[in-house]
Design a protein that fits this description.
The complex is a heterodimer of chains A (365) and B (260).
Chain A: E1 6-8, E2 13-15, H1 23-36, H2 43-51, E3 103-113, E4 119-130, E5 135-139, H3 146-153, E6 161-166, H4 171-176, E7 180-183, H5 195-204, H6 215-224, H7 240-253, E8 258-262, H8 270-287, E9 290-295, H9 298-304, E10 307-312, E11 317-323, H10 338-364
Parallel strand pairs in A: 5-9, 5-10, 7-8, 8-9
Antiparallel strand pairs in A: 1-2, 3-4, 3-6, 10-11
Helix pairs in contact in A: 5-6, 5-7, 6-7, 7-8, 9-10
Chain B: H1 2-31, H2 42-51, H3 53-87, H4 89-104, H5 110-118, H6 123-146, H7 150-158, H8 163-199, H9 207-216, H10 220-248
Classes of the chains: A alpha/beta (365), B mainly alpha (260).
Chain lengths: 365, 260
């Protein structure tokens, strides 16, 4: 079993798993590997080459966000597999000319002030990089700041420390362009508006008032989420799964270049959830936005993602960063494949180890 | 068929209740031989109305006009104040003391003052009514404007929806339910306010004014006729609000029909 080495923040703090023997050499190794092997195989590296600036700020390397440097966690055997070409090789042309942005967080922190004037840190020094068009899942226990991270990426909240950029820009600026899609935990539909009007809602809100959606395009989106006949109904006449599909269509209808999802399938039953996951991946491949997907479910994270980031502790920090090297499309039986189970076991190990550490930490207080 | 009988029962049942109350009242006054000064028979009261319908119609019109005008002014003022309070904590902090003062002041004491300020027309009375309904409207609207689902606000925020769009498309429709809850109370409250405002100097007409005059001149039939008419309009007004509410809020959990 590979040693679990998890690097946290630029300061080089180590956590979890088996104790690393030598951090320094590993870090040097990472830099070397980056320098010597600029692009090898695998789609994500390809994407990075095409859409990312070469990393220049050596002061703040973010090794844990790089596939190569990240924890060698139960990684499945990939050498024998050819690089998996996705059907949509190359970036699809976006109507608005907005390429899917790279999301980059360096030392990102957010501390809230409680009513008793006490600081309550939610995130502490999170380094994260989501490549353009990548599907990233953030997994972690409740209260580790997953939702806070999502709000910071979406420009709905400001960090108290560190920096966060979306495509090199302030998230607030990107937000103003109306290219960030958000799917919250609840469907959050307008109960007084028809399903069609709900899908078109975000097109009608906002300063830019794009009004790109008309009756025909709204119907198109409805049929994509298999609600072609439900357009005239009110949300309360739909099941929970159908409501969440409307929320998906609403987010995708603005053709986001960045999609943020906060445990959107939490309230759904297993079968509906499975259906929604398939639908989500299909919609994602249509426009290939960068996705940050927050979830509690290990299986869901592995099944959907190119990469899984484990957020841990209170305040939350990045505990591990795991590339998921499973071919797409991932069929419904993929959960039972050895590679998938190995990933799941690895993530579970980190989560449990983190929990143990937190406990020890709390006991020590 | 089911729907027809439902709408019939919705109209007929309350009317039957009113008729039953009148019958009970009539029977009670006869059995216990209650003197007319204490409680006149409903038959006598109705006869008094029938004797001079023009008199009651003109006075009812005066009182209704005061109530409707006051209700409108109070509603509009509350809508403006609640909207400002919902968007600015400074405005909210500045407003609460005033609202609490308004709520704890017996508004009738303001009647003579308003009379001095606004003269003898409809306005001082309408303003009394407006003050009566202002606080319930404001507090309920504020609750409604504030209690929009946070997930929904985040979704709107993710596309940088303007404050005005969020107000117009999210907050106002959401606040309708609370506004109607306030309106149900305020309709009858507006009649009470109008009658009370007529008790004070300067009035020469209106159901409240005639009620007082009839009491002083020991004319219980007319006094009670005023009460019956006011009660009738209170019921009609409240039911009208309920009907409108069920139509406007058809999407609301309280009014949903699963198979429209």
């Amino acid at each position: 079993m590979p040693t679990v080495i998890v690097r946290m923040r630029a300061s080089g703090r180590m956590v979890a798993g088996r104790a690393p023997t030598c951090l320094g050499s590993r870090e040097v190794g990472w830099r070397l590997s980056r320098a010597l092997l600029p692009v090898t195989c695998g789609e994500d590296r390809l994407l990075q080459k095409q859409h990312q600036q070469p990393m220049t700020d050596t002061a703040h390397p973010t090794p844990n966000t790089d596939n190569r440097s990240s924890v060698d966690l139960a990684s499945p055997v990939t050498g024998s597999r050819p690089p998996s070409p996705r059907p949509s090789a190359g970036r699809p042309e976006r109507a608005d000319g907005n390429a899917a942005p790279e999301v980059r967080a360096v030392g990102l922190s957010r501390t809230f002030i409680t009513k008793a004037d006490r600081p309550r840190p939610a995130l502490d020094g999170v380094d994260l990089r989501v490549a353009s068009g990548q599907f990233l899942s953030v997994i972690g226990p409740s209260g580790c700041g997953k939702s806070t991270l999502l709000r910071l990426i979406g420009g709905l909240d400001r960090p108290t420390g560190g920096t966060i950029t979306v495509g090199g820009e302030d998230p607030d600026v990107v937000r103003g362009r109306g290219v960030i899609g958000l799917v919250p935990q609840s469907p959050a539909l307008l109960p007084w508006k028809s399903v069609s009007d709900n899908v078109a809602l975000l097109d009608r809100l906002g300063p830019w008032k794009r009004r790109r959606l008309n009756g025909v395009t709204v119907d198109e989106w409805l049929s994509r989420v298999e609600l072609a006949d439900e357009g005239d109904l009110l949300p309360h006449q739909l099941s929970g799964g159908m409501q969440q599909r409307v929320a998906l269509a609403r987010a995708f209808a603005i053709e986001p270049s960045l999609l943020l999802m906060d445990e959107p399938f939490n309230a759904l039953d297993e079968v509906t959830r499975h259906h929604m996951q398939t639908l989500l991946v299909d919609l994602w491949r249509l426009g290939r936005p960068t996705v940050v997907f927050v979830t509690h479910s290990i299986d869901e994270a592995i099944k959907l993602s190119d990469r899984v980031v484990i957020l841990q502790g209170a305040p939350g920090t990045v505990a591990a960063d795991i590339p998921i090297e499973l071919d797409r499309p991932r069929e419904s039986g993929v959960e039972d494949s050895p590679a998938f189970r190995e990933h799941a076991a690895g993530i579970r190990r980190v989560l449990l180890a983190g929990e143990a550490e937190t406990k020890i930490h709390e006991d020590g207080r | 068929m089911i729907r027809a009988s439902r709408s019939v029962s919705r109209l007929v049942a309350p009317m039957a209740a009113v008729v039953a109350l009148l019958v009970l009242w009539e029977v009670a006054t006869r059995i216990f031989a209650i003197r007319a000064i204490a409680l006149p028979r409903p038959s006598d009261v109705l006869a008094a109305i029938a004797a001079d319908p023009a008199f009651f119609a003109s006075n009812t019109w005066v009182t209704l006009a005061e109530a409707v005008l006051g209700l409108t002014v109070g509603f509009l003022a509350a809508a403006v104040v609640a909207s400002l309070m919902a968007h600015s904590s400074l405005v909210e902090r500045l407003s609460w003391p005033g609202i609490i003062i308004l709520q704890s002041t017996p508004i009738v004491v303001l009647a003579p003052i308003l009379l001095i300020w606004f003269g003898f027309g409809i306005w001082p009375k309408a303003l009394i009514v407006a003050l009566f309904v202002f606080v319930p409207f404001t507090t309920n609207m504020l609750t409604g404007l504030r209690s929009v689902d946070q997930d929904l606000l985040n979704v709107a925020g993710s596309v940088d929806a303007s404050t005005f769009d969020v107000y117009r498309r999210l907050r106002v429709p959401h606040a309708l339910a609370d506004t109607f809850a306030a309106a149900r109370i305020c309709v009858s409250l507006s009649l009470v306010g109008a009658v009370i405002s007529e008790f004070y100097g300067g009035s020469t007409s209106g159901l409240g004014y005639q009620f007082r005059r009839a009491l002083v001149s020991i004319n219980p039939d007319i006094a009670w006729a005023c009460i019956v008419i006011l009660a009738g309009f209170g019921i009609v007004g409240t039911f009208a609000v309920l009907a409108l509410e069920s139509r406007v809020l058809h999407w609301h959990p309280a009014y949903r029909r699963e198979n429209p």
